[in-house]
Amino acid sequence: MNFIKKIFEGKGDGSVHQQFVRFGRGLFERRTVMAVKKTGKIKINTSFELTNDMVLFVFENVAKARVSGVIFAREEIPSLGKGISKKSLVEYNVDREMASSEIEEIAKKSYFMLLDCSANGISLTTKKKLPKPSAKSGKMNDKFCVLEADLKYLPQVTEEFLFDLKEKGAKKIEISHDYQINEIILPKGEKDPEKIRILAKRKGEIIRKTVADGQETVSKIAFAA
Questions:
Q1: CA distances from 175 to 35, 123, 171 (A)
Q2: DSSP letter string, 102-141
């Protein structure tokens, strides 16, 4: 389940928290941008925030797939061999077949999985460099991830990414989110500045804007992550 859907269903966890670590107080517009087109196939473009969720979505629908790209982790992942330490992350270059069970375990330790993968009528391509750290509002690269899938995957796409869409027959859907962060909840008893930054919770509101075949709807939900 992608982190936005988790928020709207009240199922926040560590993967949701990770998405907000870099944010302070304020309004951050046009985050987690997605464009979906349904023609002879399904095509989804997204910004970088959904990279891990897109990889996991592919492997929720196939048992195994060939993958290539880069995995950044905050700790060592022995199954990936020897990584390259870069600042606070370990970088792994991968190019081999993986099973869904292996990806699920890797995802638990990953910061971002910048992977291309394909199997059984579904494929994903991603950029191989993360955007520069910034919490400022601005234009997001909505083609950081590109997923293409046969129409047989439409029910899964709808359930995962278009879970609140009223116009089920819409052919062109654009979705973006504004983050309104009102409060930073600091961890009790922690003295280390970096740990405080990572462990602190952000509390506020997510404003979800959906345009389906030209018709806009807006929904809001409070969150703490």
A1: 6, 21, 13
A2: HHHHHHHHEEEEEEEEEETTEEEEE-SSPPPP--------
Q: How many domains does the chain have?
A: 1
Mean pLDDT, rounded, of the chain: 93
Contact 142, 34 (CB under 8 A): yes
What Å distances lie between residue 203 and 79, 135, 154, CA to CA? 36, 16, 33
Comparing CA positions, the residue from 106, 107, 109, 58 lying closest to residue 79 is 106
Burial class (CB in 10 A: 0-12, 13-18, 19+), 72: middle
- The stretch 159-185 carries a mean pLDDT of 94
Residue 163 structural domain? 3-224
Region of residue 75 (left: phi > 0; alpha: psi -120 to 50; beta: else): beta
- The mean pLDDT value for 161-188 works out to 94
Q: Percentage of the chain with pLDDT > 90?
A: 82
Gap between the Cα atoms of 135 and 146, Å rounded: 23
pLDDT digits (tens, 9 = 90+) for 33-42: 999 999 999 9
Sign of CA dihedral 68, 69, 72, 78: positive
* 172 alpha carbon, distance to own chain's centre: 20
The confidence score (pLDDT) of residue 166 equals 86
pLDDT for 87: 79
CB distance 76 to 83 below 8 Å: yes
